[in-house]
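fold-stage: in
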Amino acid sequence: MLPDSALPARSLRPGVSLVQTSLGPTARVTPDSPASTVMTDLRQVRAVTVNPTTALRQAEQSMIHQHVHLLFVVSDMPSLQGLITSTDLRGDRVMRAVEERNLRYEDLCVADVMTPLSMLDAIDCAQLKAARVSNVVATLRKHRRNHLLVIEAASGGEPERVRGVISRAQVERQLGTVIEASGPESDLAEIGQALS
């Protein structure tokens, strides 16, 4: 083909569909697997974001269309303000906001029910690299969280950055078991027994 020649084009017929990202089945892990195997790495998977002023219904539609259960709340990219999950969209915060402020669900926005940055739990990326899945399970149980952020240390004048996210649901799928919340931190032997 000559460098300046046009490519042949044609009309499309009804029934054409879009190619969608295929994540494939998640790899099965054990409590002794490297902790990084249960982290969604934001260098490999694009973070799905939402503005704090976005209506809850619109945020829910975004989650459905993007096939995610968590949106990163940002107003000025890439500065993180918090998270909103599918659980937040129908949880206690929604009911409180509706009752206390005499609003309808349709009037609420992401900022009304999101989990702000100050309320999020994060673990250090360097520590995660040396950890096992059993350590992640213990952390999820101890903090009674559905998600943990993985933070990359500040370097070269850049601030700390969210490198990844760990989802309780994803860890459960990969382990093939349910992670029960606990009170005090359990020791690794107890976790190993619960997962085997």
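fold-stage: in (second)
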Amino acid sequence: MSRLKQELPLQTCLVGGAVRDALLGLPVHERDHVVLGATPEQMRAHGFRQVGRDFPVFLHPATGEEYALARTERKSGPGHHGFMVHAEPDVTLEDDLRRRDLTINAMARAADGTLIDPFGGQRDLAARLLRHVSPAFVEDPLRVLRVARFAARLAPLGFAVAPETLSLMRRMVATGMLAELPPERIWREWEKALEQAAPGMFFEVLQGCGAHAVLWPELPWPAQGQPLWRRFLDRLAADDPRPTVRYAGLWHAAAAGPAAHGAVAARHRVPARFADLAALALGPGASLPAGNDPEPWLAFLERCDALRRPARLMEFIDLLRAWEDFTDATLRRADRLGTALAAVQTVISEPLRKAGLTGPALGQALRHARLQSVRRVLAEG
């Protein structure tokens, strides 16, 4: 790696998130670089592998880290991809940084360690502000969601969106720019937001700029205060890292109903592993049994397809347990559901098959054995 860098007679700088996170004292997971004064031919000649056709981005042959040619972008059409890219050797580092979304993402670190900060990113880090770099911010509607996602990530450190940036975001929403975004890009930002420390802030920012009502009006937001589901989402995020559980949790707490969730999931093409768990929470999970009668508990497990998909039900049980803790529920059913699942999983068909049972008779005997197993554990509990 060091030898190749020495042989590359070009100026490279570390840019973006790696610089930002290092200054914040956060772990740096990805390192992106910008290359000045180079052509694609030079990059390939030095062993870099070009990825994609739209942007001049290359992978280092030894580390796999991204090295992008310095570039500028000019709006040429609607949507997130409607840009003309200029990536000639005459593009300066400041030109490249100017096209970025937020000042805290528009800093660079030179090879000698010098911080290059032409737009006040370090100042805004200290002030805990998410501020746009230039008026060109309004050219890309995806930035509305990206800013909300950064707010969700950095809220625990006290970051907030700068008023002037929020004003630009409101203007973008009001002019209908979000309609230019493909559903996959919207979902990708939503999914990334669910992975953050304070995912509720993602929705808070989008509500503040008017985007929430445009993107998912089915999720209710009261005229005053925060919705219950927004508060539960952040509580859930403190204990459970799984974005699938967080997604289902916000819908469970919102109690918006299966039809509302179905409309959002279809519109934004929510992946099945997210949508299925939410559908379980809003469908069968909204009418859990109670008491010690084993029949309703077994019937519930059957409706949930629990024996074929136990992992999904375990996710729901974890979600339900968190919801019962959040609401101080007097009727605790998560543990009983887990006990019932474990009970039916102990019943196997092999002894019944050896006894000569097949077809409907085998199915009836197997269900009876499961019912008795659930009866025992509920009586013990």
